[in-house]
User: Fold these one by one.
Assistant:
Number 1:
Amino acid sequence: MDRPTLISDKWRAGYAAERLAEFTARCRARGLAITPQRVAVMRVLVNSGDHPRAEAVFAKVRREYPNISLATVHRTLETLCAIGEARKVTPLHDSARYDGNTAPHHHVVCVRCRKIRDIEMPEFSDLLHGRQTLGGFQLLGCSVEVHALCRECRSAAAKEA
Amino acid sequence: MDRPTLISDKWRAGYAAERLAEFTARCRARGLAITPQRVAVMRVLVNSGDHPRAEAVFAKVRREYPNISLATVHRTLETLCAIGEARKVTPLHDSARYDGNTAPHHHVVCVRCRKIRDIEMPEFSDLLHGRQTLGGFQLLGCSVEVHALCRECRSAAAKEA
DNA sequence: TAGCGGATGATAATAATTATCATCCACGAT
DNA sequence: ATCGTGGATGATAATTATTATCATCCGCTA
Ligand SMILES: [Mn+2]
Ligand SMILES: [Mn+2]
Ligand SMILES: [Zn+2]
Ligand SMILES: [Zn+2]
């Protein structure tokens, strides 16, 4: 079996059922109320293999709860991320960041202050090297974000605690 | 020398000078007018090692051209990306995308329709394995985006041409 | 079942980016 | 060097995504 490989929809279906089964228990453990809206957002999200945006989740949940607010969907998605039940595919940036360095390279990003530094890591691109396609996708390149805490933020975080 | 490694400011300085030297020539070759604003935005960007956002570039260019518009900075940055003189560090997403799959995995993203699919690629994380820090940064994890063209977009793109 | 506190819906506010458009000016042609 | 034109700019409005506010609601515990 050659890597990398696409994760199958079949795997996702079983995974979704498993995650949903204990979801209310994990909410309770966290002291979060089990509201029908929260459960619905979670169910829609975990059954989606397409990494939907808030608007798309809203559209689906709305079919079952026509009165749900878009704000609730936004809030709930952020809550799910905060408790580790979901993740953002586009984290660490709230507005576009530009780079004058067009040489191939990757980035370390501080998760706290969002400082970004260039890193040299040719091994990353090597992993895709030689491969033209992946499950129907024609490969063009890749970008890596290493998540980290910078020195300043480490001392700041230490002081807070 | 162990990889990955931070790219030094020293390297960046020389690189900036080199890039600026031929910038106007490359603009001319592309049929783009050489305006003082465009050159200033390019100069500020290529001399920045911190991946600034539009607002930050605006603030610096403004010192020299107090009348420059923020819109011009936005436009110019996008132009620079379009002609390959710069890149966005946060590309391929214009709004947040959420993921119910919390298992460690990475993503292929279609650069045209922005379809996102999960991929299995444990070798990526292995590259950082065992390493705790990198140039002052404490490492926490990493996310990889493989840029690609999906099947549908490939045929669509073929039709257009 | 009563009551508290978190959750929600409606809406306003904010922030980033893009669109519009009149004016301007870089540049090739004269 | 001057001119004419199309692209570039500045000012501003519009759009889009997200977050904040707040009155009401309802899940949860006692
Ligand atoms: Mn960079
Ligand atoms: Mn995913
Ligand atoms: Zn930091
Ligand atoms: Zn596509």
Number 2:
Amino acid sequence: MIKITLPDKSVREYPEGVTGMGIARSISEGLARNVLSVKVNGEVWDAMRPILQDAEIRLLTWDDEAGKATFWHSSAHLMAEAVELLYPGAKFGIGPDIENGFYYDIDFGTHQISSDDFPKIEEKMLELARDKQSFERQQVSKPEALAYFTNKGDEYKLELISELEDGQISFYKTGHFTDLCRGPHLPDTGMIKAVKLLNIAGAYWRGDEKRKQLTRLYGITFPKQKELTDYLDVLEEARKRDHRKLGKELELFTFSQKVGQGLPLWLPKGAQLRERLENFLKKVQKKAGYQQVMCPHIGNVELYKTSGHYQKYGETSFKPISTPIEGEEFFLKPMNCPHHCEIYKSSPRSYRDLPLRLAEFGTVYRYEQSGELHGLTRVRGFTQDDAHIFCMPDQVKDEFKGVMDIVMLIFKALDFKDFITQISLRDPNNKEKYIGSDENWEKAERAILEVAEERGLNAVVVPGEAAFYGPKMDFMVKDAIGRKWQLGTIQVDYNLPDRFDMEYIGSDNQKHRPVMIHRAPFGSMERFVAVLIEHTSGNFPLWLTPTQATVLPISEKYIAYGKKVVSLLDEMDIRCDLDDRNEKTGKKIRDAELAKIPYMLVVGEKEEGSLTVSVRKHGVGDLGSFSVDAFANMINEEVKRMIN
RNA sequence: GCCGAUGUAGCUCAGCUGGUAGAGCAGCUGACUUGUAAUCAGCUGGUCGGCGGUUCGAAUCCGUCCAUCGGCUCCA
């Protein structure tokens, strides 16, 4: 008998060789039906794999991430099996589970396949699933493994096996399909009830752009049909919120082939919205002791040689701008920090001047690969809400705190309720990868960790993810439909102060090197607006939205009164339009609803007589009659609550 | 940059195997004078992504370039 410890710390005895499934069955039939795999002493195993020694276990179901992973990984095998049956000779790369589903990289050889083939593959997968095929694990020796795939002619698997150690190699057999795999897998394929292939794309073998490109099939599966339907609904909702689509519909921005790829053109409504965001941040920053600066869009190549960016990115940037002077070259600026460093150096600095906080909405240009460009989230010209704080090492902590307060304020004003903080530290085993003294690193890392602690942030700490020049803290928000977006970042930098030979005179009358903090709470205006569009689905907060209200006269007769209402509201700083088209009220309301305008003010005979408006709220309906003043006050109060 | 797909009016989309384009919405004009999600009628609008080629004839077939989309790789 062996002792099995369950998550609730209760200990049960089972015969040696009991399986996770056996344990599940001893607890309840329902659990047995739902168990996907089992965690044994921290390692995920097949539910059917015999447990030979005392162990601490946890039965994994669909509700566990690791359970889902087992489900989707097994689904990748099922898809591979279907593909092998339908396209004999296909060779297989790797087929892992991912956050939402799974993929398999496949070399289809001479077969040309497209998304038109998806239904055929899905059907075959369901057919095989209905057979309730088991996943048979077998331990094989390295020579056996090599022999099997040599015989099959699959060079990808051979490459993978060649890198494995003998004794660590296992195969899994499902029906006629045998795959090299560590496992674990489902008890049988019958648990897979709903199947959907999602995407087809090229993917380099082993992620190396020098190697062959395989065909990657993405798919997702579920234990219940309903769950697949729900998932597809989420995808559909994401499509509806796509900022590229809404940006066009709401007339926020556009692109022109003639202007150039990845160079956004902000339309009046988008520009106003962005300006409002910028002014909001400027106000907050002013209060926090920042000073605005402005810099040109180009800089001499020497500037970037000093910063080190030329050496690293010179080749893949926009080509330098030459001048009539032989050998003189300028670059479009790819970041603002070098310019700001020169501002710091424009005058001798005393410790009394620090911290010096220089802020700029600085537009930068980066030659992103053409295939990388994506709406406003990845562009070649964008504006960072940048600032650089130059301070003494022992001020880092307070400055960090100050920046975090700004980030939190922004999240609150824009209704990002759910966010994740990541702290990236240096790799303790690989300190030579980084620059700066141990003392400074320790001080900075400690400062960041303490600030997170003091602010009660549940930060994820990732050693080894720091930039080579300093530790950083990144913020990821979750949007309204649960997607994660990386936004703001705060980075400590010991590199540039060195490269630019910056100094300040301390209270000891000696020269010292300042520390620099880079920070951008929005990240870039382009990307932030994109995220905001997708988060709000175009229904922007009242303080940001381009048009807060639209006045709808019910007939031509009331246009004059409508104009009067608009001008009254205008005086009270309400952004307001008049719909004086010769249309019925129903049509005007429909169009205003589709344009996502927060308030519609219907005016006719009744209203004209009493200097009132009939208020309809977007997505809600009729709120009844308000005097113009009362309406304006209501709006202004609502705005004040949001950003104060 | 790489693989694959796509590119027809401002927008959404028809256009079979080649015979030089069509709808709805938007826009304009007019009628109606409108009360909480589409009033009616008429009109305008396209070098069918660009350039070459095949053909008597190309939106349709071929080549090439550009852009977009899905991924890969990349992201100071």
